Amino acid sequence: MTVFRGYMKIIQRNMGYVFLYTGIFFGIILMLESVVGKQTEEQYQASALNIAVIDEAQDELSNGIIQALSQKHHVITNMTDKRELAESMYYEKLDYVVQIPENAEQVLLEDGGSLKITKNPGDYSGIYADMEINTFLQTVQTYHKSGMEIKRAVERALEIIKINADVTVQETSKRADGSQGYFFYFRYLPYVFLYTLCYVVPIVLRNFNEKDMERRINSSGVSSFRQGIQGMLAMTILSGGLWALLNGICLIIYGKKIILDSHMGLYIVNSICLMLVSIAIAYLLGNLLKNTSAINGVANTIALGMSFLCGVFVDLDVLSPGIIFIAKFLPVYWYEKANILLYEYGNLTTAQFQTVLMSFGIQIAVALAIFSATMIIKRIRVNQE
Predict the structure, then answer these.
(1) Which of 264, 265, 299, 324 is the most exposed place for a label (fewest CB within 10 A)?
(2) b vs e for 263-291, b when ≥16 Cβ sit within 10 Å of the residue's Cβ?
(3) Is the pTM value of this prediction over 0.70?
(4) What is the pLDDT of residue 1?
(5) Which domain holds residue 117?
């Protein structure tokens, strides 16, 4: 284990970088926590929205939709100019716009059509308006299919909505249980993992990639495969220590919130998969790069590139389809995909759970593929020398 001990000595001399970037990450998380991480259940309960309704139908059903929304929200029915609506949405004077099509009763109840909805990107308060409209329409449709006239079906649906006026957030939504803080914590982990490891690991490996050092190691009788395994073991200990440090900080900040979360185990597995991907990428870079400036530049490019493309710095739901297509080839996308599902749903459906497991599997497969490629590169380099 001579090679392994050599790696560990060099890692100890470079631990300052790890603590530096971890400290920066810790500061950012504390800032986020003070701004958005302390939202309580009251902030996620249905609140009064400013809703504009464009009623092109003027029938019993469209009138019922307006009445249903009016029970909890401020409904405006006299704003029909598209430019005025767009400006009101841009300046956040409106939260939500509903366009009811002509022949709404036929389109919505018989043909399976839908309303045209416009809401501000990233504003999750519109989710509750979606739920209210869908509940109302489904109730009306159920009564109508049972033989009830539309007018009476609308009246019955409005009565039911009035009874259930005090909306409570369903357990299926994780946005109501105070988990938003550690959702952001896990969301930003890829950047700190990738940048820290992709910088520190190549710096450590640079010492072993010097020609004199390589010749000495190769002449010692240690095979390239064993060298790779011992190096990877040392790097795994480094990344494992970073993982333990970051998760320890998470426990300190969020305490019982994260411990009592039903998905805590899945969050941990997801972060372990991310750690494996990060160390595999870092180990590959360490065997390709020897210049310190190049190491810093490539580490920045990879960490920032994946963070912007894969939903770390920018919500996935606002990225274009083309960007999403590219992101699906990157492991961080699947980390974030699992993270979002764990945050948004308290009780995962079978399909959602399978998606989470698939995300884990893709990350592990990518890590193994990168590690295998690194071992091949090392073997080729040794044979050439």
Answers:
(1) 265
(2) beebbebbbbbbbbbbbbbbbbbbbebee
(3) no
(4) 66
(5) 46-167
